[in-house]
């Protein structure tokens, strides 16, 4: 029987990702972590990887932070783990500033076992190689992770249903009071 909680599995995967990056790119300054689409667990794995006990610590840098940072300002004792974009959505890799792409020594692709196609992964790895951030590995996530927009959409739908029920209950109470009067 497997007693692992989701948090324990995520922590173990994060440790494995951190150790794999350290082994595959031991002298790396920055590693770009991307996925083919949202909801493949990229951000969760990045957050867990920075907690891994490694010789050179990993520092998570979110895509939104890159605009205000320069690679020259970063501590060379750390390995920057850049939580990059979903490559097949929106503007994809174009969202990563050029100076940061050239600063990346390696990249990792996070894929969903059920949602990612091998041809997409090959194409993305080829593109990353051409950009100067060769792919040192692919992390296959067996769990489905809802994209943030999907989760927000479900939350909005729940709130609407709740308000709809409350409105119906209030209308029923009002009608009952009118009939009773």
- End-to-end separation in angstroms reads 62 Å
Specify the biggest β-sheet: 5 strands, parallel
User: What are the low-pLDDT stretches, counting only 5+ consecutive residues below 50?
Assistant: 146-151
Shape summary: elongated
Total helix count? Answer: 5
Task: Give the secondary structure arrangement, pairings included.
Elements: H1 6-24, E1 30-35, H2 42-49, E2 58-62, E3 79-86, H3 98-103, E4 106-112, H4 118-131, E5 135-141, H5 148-180
Parallel strand pairs: 1-3, 1-4, 2-3, 4-5
Helix pairs in contact: 1-2
Describe the structure.
With 181 residues, this protein is of the alpha/beta class. The protein has five helices and five strands. Strands 2-3-1-4-5 form a five-stranded parallel sheet, sandwiched between helices. Helix 1 packs across helix 2 (42-49). The chain is elongated.
């Amino acid at each position: 029987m497997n007693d692992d909680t989701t948090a324990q599995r995520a922590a173990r995967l994060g440790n494995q990702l951190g150790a794999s990056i350290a082994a595959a790119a031991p002298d790396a300054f920055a590693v770009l972590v991307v996925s083919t689409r949202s909801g493949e667990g990229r951000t969760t794995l990045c957050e867990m990887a920075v907690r891994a006990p490694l010789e050179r610590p990993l520092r998570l840098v979110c895509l939104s932070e890159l605009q205000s940072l320069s690679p020259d300002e970063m501590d060379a004792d750390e390995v920057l783990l850049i939580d990059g974009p979903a490559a097949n959505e929106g503007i994809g890799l174009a969202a990563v500033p050029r100076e940061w792409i050239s600063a990346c020594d390696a990249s990792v692709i996070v894929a969903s076992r059920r949602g990612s196609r091998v041809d997409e992964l090959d194409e993305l790895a080829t593109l990353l190689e051409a950009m100067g951030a060769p792919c040192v590995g692919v992390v296959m996530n067996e769990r489905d992770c809802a994209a943030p927009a999907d989760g927000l959409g479900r939350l909005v739908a729940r709130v609407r249903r709740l308000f709809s029920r409350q409105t119906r209950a209030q209308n029923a109470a009002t009608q009952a009071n009118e009939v009773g009067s």
